[in-house]
Amino acid sequence: MITATLTQITAEAAAALDGLEVTVTDQPHDAAGAVMAGVPALLILPPSIEWLTLTHRTATWTVYALAPTTDPTEAAGIFEPILDALAEPLGLDSAEPETYTIADRTFPGYTLTLTTEH
User: Fold this and answer.
1) Closest alpha carbon to 13 in 92, 79, 80
2) What whole-number distance in Å separates Cα of residue 22 and Cα of residue 13?
3) pLDDT in tens, 30-44
């Protein structure tokens, strides 16, 4: 992916996950609502930007994958098809395991990163 916007990244992720029950959103409250309703969520936020020159920059995107379970073993089974589906279309740079707290409950997840050039 050479250039991208938040809308484009979100659409690419949704297309890659077609057929899997995953909520793809750029709204934190929608991601939290999905997880609390028992649906995995992918939360895509605006990127950090580094200017390499006045006309060239890179954008590093952070994407949070959240499982709707507190069981890490069950979460591993949920994440495997999601990460496999996203790796190539989004050109993922990394996936780091994390935990996230929503409504006083801790859910397993991944922080995914990808970089685009503009």
Assistant:
1) 92
2) 10
3) 999 999 999 999 999
